[in-house]
Amino acid sequence: MINKIINFSKYTSIKIGGNIEISYIDDESIEKIYPLVGAGNNILISNNVKKAYILSKKFDYIHIKEDKLYIGASTPSGKIVNFCKKNNIKNFEWAYSLPATLGGMIRMNAGVKEYEIFNHLISVKFFNGYVYKKDIPHAYRWTNIDKIVYEAVFEIEKGFSKELVNKFSKFRENQPIIASAGSCFKNPKGSFAGKLIEDVGLKGYRINDVGFSEKHSNFLVNYKNGTFDDAIKLINKAKKVIFDKYKIQLEEEIVIINS
Ligand SMILES: Cc1cc2nc3c(=O)[nH]c(=O)nc-3n(C[C@H](O)[C@H](O)[C@H](O)COP(=O)(O)OP(=O)(O)OC[C@H]3O[C@@H](n4cnc5c(N)ncnc54)[C@H](O)[C@@H]3O)c2cc1C
Known about the structure:
This protein is an alpha+beta fold. The chain has helices at about 10, 75-85, 100-110, 160-170, 195-200, 230-245, and strands at about 1-5, 20-25, 35, 45, 50-55, 60-65, 70, 110, 115, 120-125, 130, 140, 140-145, 150-155, 180-185, 205, 210, 220, 255. The strands form six sheets. Strands 6-7-14-10-11 form a five-stranded antiparallel β-sheet, covered by helices on one side. Strand 10 and strand 11 (about 130) form a beta hairpin. The structure holds flavin-adenine dinucleotide. Flavin-adenine dinucleotide (FAD) binds next to strand 3, helix 3, strand 8 and strand 15.
């Protein structure tokens, strides 16, 4: 493992976190490790965290073998979509401009509307080999994965669609362009987290420099000097107010790393 200090207030998309000693994993025999970070687009990390792990560039690859796509877990989403464009492969267009590495996408079952990364997945490689999709419990923006994802294997279907890429780029236009961790809460059954936040008057609401975006109320944004504590206070406030009013228990989509 190679060690390096990374400033997480620069590394994460929400620009919160301190200096953390990172060990880069290049050994596929490790089962699980905590805290594991991908590209840091859906995490909120406390300044108390002093040590974390990231998969090394050894896992940044895309291969085609016997009509299947093998993608290493540290491969960025943009690289995957570009590869699919070049090779006329469909089903990954939705991941265009979704900031992620493959490992983060698999663990979160990332997706946009009816598209999600598990749709065309065949299997995931963990420390002890490949596990088929049917044996990995998963649902909307959720998996039970607690082990390191090293690689994933996908079906190949021909027919990359530039139109779909354009459609998803347009969809991004209503998202804030300032520092954010993407969606803060999962949509509860039968409702939208953003709508609930708006209905209780918290759209645009801030605690110091952390707020629910004025553009997209379920996006947690950092206006400049936001802290982990401000973000946690805001999350807890929204959960309480929405529970008190609608008896709906919101669940975080962002991953909170506190130690
Ligand atoms: C502007 C913006 C827009 C976004 N839009 C969307 C959207 O439309 N849809 C959507 O689903 N998400 C969206 N997100 C959230 C984010 O893009 C996804 O959750 C993405 O999958 C995170 O990938 P990451 O590599 O950054 O993972 P991180 O945020 O670094 O980590 C997320 C989780 O994955 C785990 N993880 C990372 N790598 C591995 C691995 N190799 N093995 C096992 N676990 C691992 C981490 O431990 C952590 O629990 C958005 C985020 C931003 C900032």
